[in-house]
Design brief:
Layout (H helix, E strand, L loop, with lengths): L7 H14 L5 H16 L7 H16 L5 H23 L4 H12 L12 H8 L6 E2 L1 H10 L2 E5 L5 H14 L3 E6 L10 H6 L7 E4 L14 H9 L2 E5 L1 H7 L6 E7 L3 H6 L7 E6 L7
Parallel strand pairs: 1-7, 2-3, 2-5, 3-4, 5-6
Antiparallel strand pairs: 6-7
Pfam family, one: ARMT1-like_dom
Protein name: Damage-control phosphatase ARMT1-like metal-binding domain-containing protein
Length: 290
């Protein structure tokens, strides 16, 4: 299990300041929110994941302002990714192995993360992902699991990024797989919600549901009973993004494929990798590590 480390604390505060910079609120309100976040950090449970702590930080910002800090940027990056979609789709379905290509592009899309980065180069990251070597590449595991499972639970991460996930879902449904895609129940950072799924047309390719939660990652303690039933019913999960990895790493009763980039030192250190590493990481039930 990934736990809060000392290196998380400056990142927590930076995320708070960055989120507040997106909002039209006065300085007095900003300072009050920062004081409240500092209180959360003072009492943070270091035996839990970083995602657990950031959930309460972002809840505080929303509760005190009544605003979603990243609403405008989410729409912007949905539109940006949709502008790349047709070209990438052509590239995927005309490649030697559409599943391989779509999975790599989905990993590249994970770069769109305003909780970690203030700027990024999506197209350069796609080109890097389509090179032959990534840090962890359990593609054979992925293919084997797809042969064993006709139903897949696909946990989304960020807005914009989900357009690249749509490509992978199109490949999966073309293989005859039934995909249930999962968005957040309410805004948190730039994570995908139902609004983003509808804007990007995901619903035309698979069933989409929300998890009833505004928590970072997938923490079942915060999720709706409807989602938990679906989660328990599926034996194979595709998990996108670092937050979902934090909260599901070591899950002992699911076969999971994690598609993400290790975007901070804490996660990279946990994996014994360098920051920025790309991963297609398989995890078998009853198995802590691969």
């Amino acid at each position: 299990m990934i736990k809060v480390s000392l290196d998380c604390f400056p990142c927590f505060l930076r995320q708070t300041v960055t989120a507040l910079s997106q909002l039209d609120v006065d300085d007095a309100a900003r300072y009050q929110i920062i004081r409240e976040v500092l209180g959360i950090l003072r009492d943070v449970d270091v035996e839990r994941t970083p995602a657990y702590a950031t959930t309460f930080m972002y809840r505080t910002i929303k509760q005190r302002t009544g605003l979603d800090p990243y609403a405008v940027l989410k729409r912007k990056y949905n539109e940006f990714a949709l502008g790349l979609y047709q070209g990438l789709r052509h590239q995927v379905f005309n490649s030697r192995d559409p599943l391989w290509s779509a999975a790599r592009i989905a990993i590249a899309g994970n770069i769109i993360d305003f909780g970690i980065y203030e700027s990024f180069d999506v197209e350069k990251t796609i080109a890097r992902a389509l090179e032959d070597v990534i840090a962890v590449d359990d593609f054979d595991f992925f293919k084997a699991e797809l042969q064993r499972h006709d139903e897949i639970l696909y946990l989304f991460d960020n807005a914009g990024e989900i357009v690249f996930d749509k490509l992978l879902i199109e490949v999966l449904t073309g293989m005859g797989k039934r995909v249930t895609a999962v968005v957040k129940g309410a805004p948190v950072i730039n994570d995908s919600t139902m609004e983003d799924a509808l804007m990007t047309g995901i619903d035309k390719h698979c069933h989409v549901m929300d998890n009833g939660s505004d928590a970072v990652g997938t923490d079942l303690n915060f999720c709706s009973q409807d989602f938990i039933k679906e989660y328990e019913r599926h034996s194979f999960v595709i998990s996108k993004g670092q937050g979902n990895f934090e909260t599901l790493d070591g899950c002992r009763h699911k076969n999971i494929v994690f598609l993400f980039q290790a975007k901070c030192d804490v996660i990279a250190s946990h994996l014994n990798l360098t920051k920025g590493s790309m991963l297609l990481k398989g995890q078998l039930k009853h198995q802590q590590e691969r």
